[in-house]
């Protein structure tokens, strides 16, 4: 399992053998059952997880009692409620495994010590954090400015592997759409874009 993280880090930057050993010593390998929660509302997100196998979603329950998906994570992605992780305050989110999954987990204490002791690892994480912040900003802009059809087709193009594995009602939530709107958009998109229609997502209760 740890070999996946080693390959990932080598791809993103260059760690010394000593730094790689520090990463190994700070990590814990964990298997997670489908539908198991890594985090529930009211708990402090005291870990960062690197996904080796499987998929997860981070979501909140709004005042409307509906689930609102904030992010997904599949292989070679990181998962945590980073706001709670950084602040130490209780989370208002849930993290759920969508498949039988495996991840490499770092506690808050060991993560902070690792960043302090391994400068090359810290550089990789800082670069990824900046990239994720940019992606988050772009997603906000897309949600408030782009029509539903554009959001849907962009999601399919950018995340085809993810799209094939996530129930459609969760994708609708992530895109800020109702189930009915996503169903309509899918039908219209399949007529306009044959390459998009070839993607076969999981139904997940949404026709």
Automatic annotation (TrEMBL):
Pfam families assigned to the protein according to its UniProt record, in alphabetical order: cNMP_binding
Entry coiled-coil feature ranges: none
UniProt cross-references to SMART domains, sorted A to Z: cNMP (SM00100)
Annotated segments matching region Disordered: 185-207
Domain of life: Bacteria
CDD domains: CAP_ED
Gene3D superfamilies named in the record: Jelly Rolls (2.60.120.10)
Cyclic nucleotide-binding domain mapped to chain residues: 15-115
Protein name: Crp/Fnr family transcriptional regulator
Species annotation: Xanthocytophaga agilis
């Amino acid at each position: 399992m740890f070999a996946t993280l080693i390959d990932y880090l080598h791809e993103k930057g260059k760690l010394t053998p000593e730094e790689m050993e520090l990463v190994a010593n700070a990590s814990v390998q964990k298997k997670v059952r489908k539908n198991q929660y890594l985090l529930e509302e009211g708990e402090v997100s005291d870990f960062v997880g690197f996904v080796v196998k499987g998929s997860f979603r981070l979501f909140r329950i709004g005042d409307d009692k509906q689930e609102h998906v904030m992010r997904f994570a599949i292989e070679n992605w990181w998962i945590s409620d980073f706001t709670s992780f950084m602040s130490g305050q209780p989370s208002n989110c849930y993290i759920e495994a969508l498949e039988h999954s495996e991840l490499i987990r770092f506690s808050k204490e060991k993560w902070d010590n690792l960043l302090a002791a391994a400068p090359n690892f810290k550089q990789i994480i800082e670069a990824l954090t900046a990239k994720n912040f940019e992606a988050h900003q772009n997603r906000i802009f897309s949600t408030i400015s782009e029509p539903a059809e554009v959001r849907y087709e962009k999601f399919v193009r950018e995340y085809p592997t993810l799209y094939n594995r996530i129930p459609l009602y969760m994708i609708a939530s992530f895109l800020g759409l109702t189930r009915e709107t996503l169903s309509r958009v899918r039908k219209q998109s399949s007529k306009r874009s044959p390459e998009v229609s070839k993607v076969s997502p999981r139904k997940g209760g949404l026709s």
